[in-house]
Amino acid sequence: MSLSLNCLTEDDFKLKAKSICRQLLPSSSWKRASVDQIRCSRIKTGQSNRLYICELMSYDGVNNRQQIEFHDDGLLSPVTTTTTSISNQSSLITELKKSQVQNKVIVRFYGSEFTGEGNKYRSISDELECRILDHLSSKGRAPKVYATFEGGRIDEFLENATLATVDTLRSTPYLRSLANKIAQFHALQIELPDVDHYEVLNYFETQCIPEVDGHLNSNLSPGERELITEIRNFVNSDQLNFIFGKMDNLDQRKVCGHFDLNPTNILVLPSETPEGRPTMDTLLIDFENCQTGFRGLDLGKFFSELSVTENNYIAARANGTSSASQITPVSDAKIREFIRYYLTEWSTISDDFDSSIDNEINLFQEIKFNLMLSLLGFIYWNISNPDFLSKKLFNVTASRIILYKQFAKRWFS
Q1: Fewer Cβ atoms within 10 A, N terminus or C terminus of the chain?
Q2: Which domains does the chain possess?
Q3: What GO molecular function annotation could you give as one example from this UniProt entry (predicted)?
């Protein structure tokens, strides 16, 4: 089943998602459902892939049902609608309850408008990602994969909200849960590509310097030219060697890394404490960028993106516009709090615990330097992106430069 992102409209994708569910899901309920009996809506929080929720609609005569609208800001809102009966829906849902496949699933098409058909930026194969998902889902740590097809797969739908919808992304319950889940993932014994991320950073730095000069020769507004000039001055300031020069004698641990720990790749799920009290748990998703690499770089990316996402969330809730100048770096205290939870979990599950490197002082240094490098990588990659001007990536690039300078002032001035 070949897909072309350039040829398919949004309606085409929805129709194809419905057809795939009817063909591939191992349930006669889905196979017997008509296209009109499946509701399909797009999830717009991610940018690497195109995701659609497909749901068998349940009716009982005239029935009020609650559907979920997915907005560009990642917030979820319930909408009540009234619908009339469809002849065989009741029997479909009754049968479905007896099977292992839900009446609501996620159809994932690899790639998007941003990453190209098939997601040209993914680090591992579709097959390896599915093996990782099978392993994690068997332990309750990831959604199940129901079926795969050329160019995508069908995943279990979990009633959840992304981390970006909680009131604060830095609260203790979430930090503790995240630290445990990330430590558990880092301890996995999976053969993954072993990437020299520092060599990649060097490459992107050399590529982006002439690129930013080329951008300045384009037709720009005065404000855009001023902003891109500031970006050029930053990339010409040799920040990469500045950070490398401070990392001498830093002991680092290589792990099974996620390397895309954006808050939109972390789900928040209802759970219970051992005492039966309601609480919230977290779950990692989207493993297409998994690699063997330094844990400090994996965690550094998480904390750098957390600083940006919280600002975006607060602005969205206030119906305002996110301002890069108002970005607040995650505090050292919060990073250290996370580290303590992480190391406690690591000490109980790792067969390779080493107190000389698995301690709060050393791991903080790992995160500190690699956080700066992850920001540089994001900046260099954006500048080298062919869509830097057309998609106005200079705005998010400038926000990362501001964040970099704030961390640099705190740690190195």
Answers
A1: C
A2: 1-59+102-159 (3.30.200.20), 162-412 (3.90.1200.10)
A3: choline kinase activity
